[in-house]
Amino acid sequence: MTSYVINNNKLTRMKEWHVPASIVSKRTVNPIRDVVYNMKVTPNPNKEYISLALGDPTYYGNFKIHENCIDAMITQLKSYNANGYVPAIGVESARIALAKKFSTKEAPLTPEDILLTSGASDALSLAINVLCNEGQNILLPRPGFSLYQTLSESKGIECRYYNLLPDRNWEIDLDHLSSLIDDKTACLLINNPSNPCGSNFTRQHLESILYLCENYKLPVICDEIYEDMVYGDSIFYPLANLTKTVPILKISGLAKRYLIPGWRVGWIFIYDHNNILNEVRSGLAALANLILGANSLVQRAIPDIITNTPQSFHDETNKSLEENAKLSANVLGKIPGLHIIVPQGAMYMMVGINVEEFKDIKNDIEFNEKLVQEESVLCLPGKIFHYPNYVRIVTTAPTAKLNEAYERIKEFCVRHHV
Ligand SMILES: Cc1ncc(COP(=O)(O)O)c(C=O)c1O
């Protein structure tokens, strides 16, 4: 609908007010908002509310930012040098520091290969925007982070979901993935380690994915925002280290590893050994003008943050994540009616609901709603991740809260079990 009419080749504004929202805004849906905010139940007033739903490690205050990050920001604030506009692709000092820290023998980086963005969310938006046109399709994981769908559909890009296999630590079903590819497939998006699965791909599996991409000449958007957040025997392999031929846009940032999601710092690394992405590179630089990146203070603090925060800080974070994951798997794995896939990384665990074992719970939405209503515990239903009859649990709450929540989940399941 427009707010004008054309009569005899003359444009006449309408006489009445008519201000519709744009098509793009109407195509933009947030599945989390749709499911959680439209929930028609209220928590049990007699039980303290415990949320295991938000992928924000700072939520309960037990995962603390390192002092070095605070000092780095204070230094910038007091310098009077970090208040102005910055280049659209990000300040050079930060791009130099990132290139130095993340370059490897197999996948070297220069500052020109790096764009700073407003969180990994913005990086994903730019990457999807630069690789896909309206009418094309993008291959997304199922289960997968819902922002991929939101970003793609708002741009008129068709989402095709490839299956992850719970029985194989959430590896990609590569035959299914291949069956989705056609002439209109613009790129493959993979997320490793995964939200919501808490999985971490083996080197061999990553190589198989790359082999397929080489075969179909598919560029990859690789969301590695949880890079290095792995535990147990699991080793994280950056995808770009494993190929000399497949072009990759790697997405990452400070949000999770440095426990500062609110600071909104993300980046794109362009890996392109054979100059396939020359046009895409210029396209990204052009698109960066849409937002003008993360704020200037945090951009200028990046060299200090990534160079001087000690490895022991990351090790401690991973240790706590591992302990919480073990606790979650041990307790939830023994509850009747549930089955778990033990996580290897990130801060999530998918818990399957054997709906046939419950007398009055039909699906994950009902499980979630009744759990809130009766036990005041909030998880996210699998539907949000296109994976019904699972719930996603965020494993970052303090141990006492996790124990309390799991005790209530146990009582709930026993009560509703056949
Ligand atoms: C898989 C994944 N990618 C990207 C993001 C977005 O990160 P940021 O907060 O830096 O925008 C998240 C946030 O939860 C995520 O889980």
From TrEMBL:
Q: What processes does the entry annotate via GO biological process terms? A: L-phenylalanine catabolic process; L-tyrosine catabolic process
Indicate the enzyme's highest-level EC class: transferase
* Known EC number: 2.6.1.5
- Keyword Transferase recorded: yes
Provide this UniProt record's keywords sorted from A to Z.
Aminotransferase, Phenylalanine catabolism, Pyridoxal phosphate, Transferase, Tyrosine catabolism
Pathway the protein contributes to: Amino-acid degradation; L-phenylalanine degradation; acetoacetate and fumarate from L-phenylalanine: step 2/6
Q: Where is the Aminotransferase class I/classII large domain?
A: 48-409
The record ties this protein, via CDD domains, to: AAT_like
Q: Which residues carry this modification: N6-(pyridoxal phosphate)lysine?
A: 256
| The protein's required cofactors | pyridoxal 5'-phosphate
One example of the protein's molecular function in GO is:
L-tyrosine-2-oxoglutarate transaminase activity
For this protein, the record's Pfam families field holds: Aminotran_1_2
Catalytic activity reads: L-tyrosine + 2-oxoglutarate = 3-(4-hydroxyphenyl)pyruvate + L-glutamate
NCBIfam families tied to this protein: tyr_amTase_E, tyr_nico_aTase
The record's note on quaternary structure and interaction partners says: Homodimer.
Q: Which family does it belong to?
A: Belongs to the class-I pyridoxal-phosphate-dependent aminotransferase family.
Write the protein's name: Tyrosine aminotransferase
